[in-house]
Amino acid sequence: MAAPTLRHATVRTQVNPHFLFNNLNTLSSLIPENPKHAVDFVQQLSKVYRHILDVKDEKSILLKDELEVLNAYTFLLKTRFEKNLEVNINIPPEKMQQKIVPLSLQILMENAIKHNIVSSGKPLQINVFTENGSLVVSNNLQMKNQINESTGIGLDNIRNRYKLISERPVKVTESETNFTVSIPLIDN
């Protein structure tokens, strides 16, 4: 059997069983409590998975399209974490026609949730904005006490896919208070 291509490994990474499990648990609690919200939740979950299927073979996509799915993904996360998660997206309209690597925003959001405490005592704040020709995803750093170290697969995946389409590198910076990833915006 041939080794999976980088793009297929990307999709496999994104169709994370934990993500599906967590969303199905959230949905099962929503159905009796708030059926209307449960329907909205299923529609947003469907939008996220449709996007994964649609872009799995693309090298880059419009930022506008990726942000539309990021909004659906954020809806799922905010339904699960409620007030314990704050997501601020501030992208100027003139940047929407630039391109990024597909699913990179979802990977970065997923990493922020995976590695940080998200609780009422320590809400997680994720900011998405543009700066110096890059799209920036930054979160307050409140690392979980994890037995296993991070594998870095998500960030390596993004870096490797950017190497295929841009000479500009993905930049990762960590301070005592923030974790920030800057991914190049590519002109259309």
Characterization of this structure:
- This protein has a single domain, classed as Heat Shock Protein 90.
- It is globular.
- 48% of the residues lie in helices and 19% in strands.
- The chain is an alpha+beta fold and 188 residues long.
- It has a five-stranded mixed β-sheet, covered by helices on one side. It has a two-stranded antiparallel ribbon with strand order 1-3.
- The protein has helices at 6-14, 17-33, 35-55, 63-81, 104-115, 153-165; strands at residues 61-62, 85-90, 99-100, 124-131, 134-140, 171-174, 178-184.
- It has six helices and seven strands, in the order H-H-H-E-H-E-E-H-E-E-H-E-E.
Topology:
Elements: H1 6-14, H2 17-33, H3 35-55, E1 61-62, H4 63-81, E2 85-90, E3 99-100, H5 104-115, E4 124-131, E5 134-140, H6 153-165, E6 171-174, E7 178-184
Parallel strand pairs: 2-4
Antiparallel strand pairs: 1-3, 4-5, 5-7, 6-7
Q: Under the CATH scheme, which architecture would be assigned?
A: 2-Layer Sandwich
Cα Rg: 16 Å
DSSP, total strands:
7
The oligomeric status of these chains comes to: single chain
- Through-space gap between termini: 36 Å
Largest sheet: 5 strands, mixed
- Contiguous low-pLDDT stretches (5 residues minimum) are 1-14
What's a quick, concise take on this entry?
With 188 residues, the protein is an alpha+beta fold. It is 48% helix and 19% strand. The strands form 2 sheets. It has a 5-stranded mixed β-sheet, with helices on one face. A two-stranded antiparallel ribbon has the order 1-3.
